[in-house]
Amino acid sequence: MSQQGSAGNVIAAIASFFFAGLGQLVQGRILAAIIFCLTTYASYGIATFTFGIFLIVAVPLHIWCIIDAARFKAD
After folding, report:
1. What's the pTM?
2. Residue 24 · residue 12 · CB < 8 Å
3. Left if phi > 0, otherwise alpha if psi is -120 to 50, otherwise beta: which for 65?
4. What number of other Cβ atoms are within 10 A of residue 42's Cβ?
């Protein structure tokens, strides 16, 4: 997964679509995976108890997670 747009990044983006942070984990970025997972699912959890108001934060976080996995460039 050395170049942006490589097959590995596409797989990581698809993985992040289904489970936030999984794409970063596939890429070996453990800290980013933990942060994306915790913040995204905490936001979804809070949205559950606030009748969906907090989805304004949760959905963009999940989309950011997917885009981050797709655009990652290894050094």
Report:
1. 0.86
2. yes
3. alpha
4. 14
Whether 35 and 20 have beta carbons less than 8 Å apart is answered as no
SS3 32: helix
- pLDDT per residue of the chain (75 residues) written in tens, 0 to 9: 455 557 889 999 999 999 999 999 999 999 999 999 999 999 999 999 998 888 899 999 999 999 999 999 877
**Residue 3 C-beta-side C-alpha neighbours within 13 Å:** 3
CA distance 29 to 38: 14
